From TrEMBL:
Domain named Peptidase M1 alanyl aminopeptidase C-terminal: residues: 299-621
Name of the protein: Puromycin-sensitive aminopeptidase
Keywords: Aminopeptidase, Hydrolase, Protease
Domain Peptidase M1 alanyl aminopeptidase Ig-like fold: 182-295
Organism the protein comes from: Saponaria officinalis
MF-aspect GO terms: aminopeptidase activity; metallopeptidase activity; zinc ion binding
Domain (Peptidase M1 membrane alanine aminopeptidase): residue spans on this chain: 1-174
InterPro entries: PepN_Ig-like_sf (IPR038438), Peptidase_M1_dom (IPR014782), Peptidase_M1_pepN (IPR012779), Peptidase_M1_pepN_C (IPR024601), Peptidase_M1_pepN_C_sf (IPR037144), Peptidase_M1_pepN_Ig-like (IPR035414), Peptidase_M4/M1_CTD_sf (IPR027268)
Pfam families assigned to the protein according to its UniProt record, in alphabetical order: DUF3458, DUF3458_C, Peptidase_M1
CC per GO annotation: chloroplast
Length: 622
């Protein structure tokens, strides 16, 4: 049950002005305040029968706030942001010792299950209903849900039944999304028969074992698909043959360009008819299901999709897949002490995106951002943070050098001295400018350093000032130290801005940064009793892959010592901090030994809270 008529907000999610809050802050405030007020229906008027049904209200309300934010800005950019969050935080949880279904089976402390699985993956489950039923069908299901259950405490099955009954739909094994943990892995192969003019997609799926669930059943996975012709245009889809039946895809004599395939078995085949040329498939459009997709799409076809796909999410995704493949290849070279070289076609592809005036500017910023280090580490058998960091740094520097002219022009063309406005066009302009500036500032030459410093000094809002500060502080040295000092001097009396300052330094990839973070613990503006400050500094540090996972274990020891202290002050915050150690088995033996020692040290403490005990014990038992 949510509080009726009384909402208590974290200060950073309600207090904002252009001088002190960034576009990211404003967007978070928009989403969170929307989320809490949407709870008046999904959480108050209809609430949960018990805590195990938490996603019934939270997953549904996250979906609603995502849709609200999409309507207020760019739907594609919001979708990219949500999927990035899912992959960065929820996928690792699904693959680790704390993996649990959207509806958990058990818990020691309920506090520990306010998780990205319950919230973000839960929202993806709700989104799949909409994908399967369409907007009108989903609305019919929501209307029936409220009609049946207004004033009641209900279960996830009640929501499922409302969607199913309102549309007379067959959802087969869809309820497994609530009971099975883990991220499904779906493999797709394709073939074209020129004589029969058919295009075939073969699907296979598996859900990896997770703690307490070694055997998994096939999931109900909606896969949105489109086919592109040789000119990059969507091919009208007339019919698909599946499971002994032919389904007509055209509706009301209108052409269909995207269809949703229902993958419900371990292996399935779908055959499209009347396809006059070999197409390029656009798979999982709009990220229609929270899965890991592996396909036989060639690099040439991915570059083609990057240039032509009408589904903007998949256009971005094509670039991300190319980026992931490139980074993994270079990581292998780095580990074998081979010289690193950057594929020129990749550079040219990003250059084309950067110069496309028809694209949304915030989309461009997302498209020329490389996959994050954690995502690449998750794709490796043994995570190597040093190699991944070295490779990502190499690629960014090469892109900066080869596209220097384009990046500088992007900065100059997107400056504005106009009064700050929080709307999509201005947010997009600032996002692209600051992304370009971050690339420019990597280059070690006076012109680039002066450009970044000028952007910092002339900024008229926090988004641009902090963007310039972030760009400058990528490189160690006197200028970095002076600008950080200047920023603190300006904002030392605004604790929310100071928290940004803490986070920026904590997440720095500068070698040996753990010593700098230790010094910041003694800073007069830091207080271990303040959760926001803990999340800013200590949480920020644990997200610096290369320093937190330092080979000497200094990052692990730093966190372990602080978790012990925090547990006496705020067990909920401490349990969230210790989660950073939960996937210690993903690393090499040296790191495993060092991380495990910290978990054992935490477990040996007298009076350990149930919150921390649950996370630490499950991490060790994995």
């Amino acid at each position: 049950m949510e509080n009726k008529s009384l909402n208590i907000f974290n200060s950073r999610l309600v207090l904002a002005s252009p001088e002190t809050a960034t576009d990211t802050d404003y967007a978070a405030i928009l989403g969170v305040i929307g989320h809490e007020y949407f709870h008046n229906w999904t959480g108050n008027r209809v609430t949960c029968r018990d805590w195990f049904q938490l996603s019934l209200k939270e997953g549904l309300t996250v979906f609603r706030d995502q849709e609200f934010s999409s309507d207020m800005g760019s739907r594609t950019v919001k979708r990219i942001a949500d999927v990035t969050k899912l992959r960065t935080f929820q996928y690792p949880q699904d693959a680790g010792p704390m993996a649990h279904p959207v509806r958990p089976h058990s818990y020691i402390k309920m506090d520990n299950f306010y998780t990205v699985t319950v919230y973000e993956k839960g929202a993806e489950v709700v989104r799949m209903y909409k994908t399967l039923l369409g907007s009108q069908g989903f609305r019919k299901g929501m209307d029936l849900y409220f009609k049946r259950h207004d004033g009641q405490a209900v279960t996830c099955e009640d929501f499922y039944s409302a969607m199913k009954d309102a549309n007379n739909a067959d959802f087969a094994n869809f309820l497994l999304w609530y009971s099975q943990a883990g991220t499904p892995i779906v493999q797709v192969t394709s073939s074209y028969d020129a004589e029969k003019k058919t295009f075939t997609l073969n699907f296979s799926q598996e859900v990896p074992p997770t703690p307490g669930q070694s055997v998994k059943e096939p999931m109900f996975i909606p896969v949105a698909v489109g086919l592109l012709d040789s000119h990059g245009k969507d091919i009208p889809l007339s019919a698909v043959h599946h499971d002994g039946k032919i389904e007509s895809l055209s509706a009301d004599s209108q052409p269909t360009y995207t269809t949703v395939l229902r993958v419900t078995k371990k292996e399935e085949k779908f055959v499209f008819s009347d396809i006059s040329e070999k197409p390029v498939p656009s798979l999982l459009r709009g990220f229609s299901a929270p899965i890991r997709l592996e396909s036989d799409t060639s690099d040439d076809d991915l570059f083609f999709l990057l240039s032509h796909d009408s589904d903007e999410f998949n256009r971005w995704e094509a670039g991300q897949i190319l980026g992931r493949k490139l980074m993994l290849s270079l990581v292998s070279d780095f580990q074998q002490n081979k010289p690193l070289t950057l594929n020129q076609k990749f550079v040219d592809g990003l250059k084309s995106i950067l110069g496309d005036k028809n694209l949304d500017k915030e989309f461009i910023a997302k498209a020329v951002t490389l996959p994050v280090e954690g995502e690449i580490m998750d794709m490796m058998d043994v995570a190597d943070p040093d190699a991944v960091h070295a490779v990502r740094t190499f690629i960014r520097k090469q892109l900066a050098l080869q596209l220097k002219t384009e990046f500088i022009r992007t900065v100059e063309e997107n400056r504005s001295s106009e009064q700050y406005e929080f709307d999509h066009s201005n947010m997009a302009r600032r996002a692209l400018k600051n992304l370009a500036l971050a690339y420019v500032a990597i280059i070690d030459d006076p012109e680039c350093a002066e450009l970044a410093l000028n952007e910092y000094k002339t900024a008229t809002n926090m988004t641009d000032q902090f963007g310039a500060l972030t760009a400058i502080t990528q490189n160690p040295g006197k200028i970095r130290d002076e600008v950080l000092s200047d920023f603190y001097g300006k904002w030392q009396n605004d604790y929310l801005v100071v928290n940004k300052w803490f986070t920026l330094q904590a997440m720095s990839d500068i070698p040996g940064n753990v010593e700098n973070v230790k010094k910041l613990l003694e800073h007069p503006a830091f207080d271990l009793r303040n959760p926001n400050k803990v999340y800013a500094l200590i949480g920020g540090f644990s997200n610096s892959r290369v320093n937190f996972h330092a080979k000497d274990g200094s990052g692990y020891k730093f966190l372990g010592d602080l978790v012990v202290q925090l547990d006496k002050i705020n067990p909920q915050v401490a349990s969230r901090m210790v989660s950073a150690l939960s996937r210690w088995k993903r690393f090499d033996e040296t790191r495993q030994t060092l991380a495990k020692a910290e978990l054992e040290k935490i477990m040996s403490c007298n009076g350990l809270s149930e919150n921390v005990f649950e996370i630490a014990s499950k991490s060790l038992a994995s």
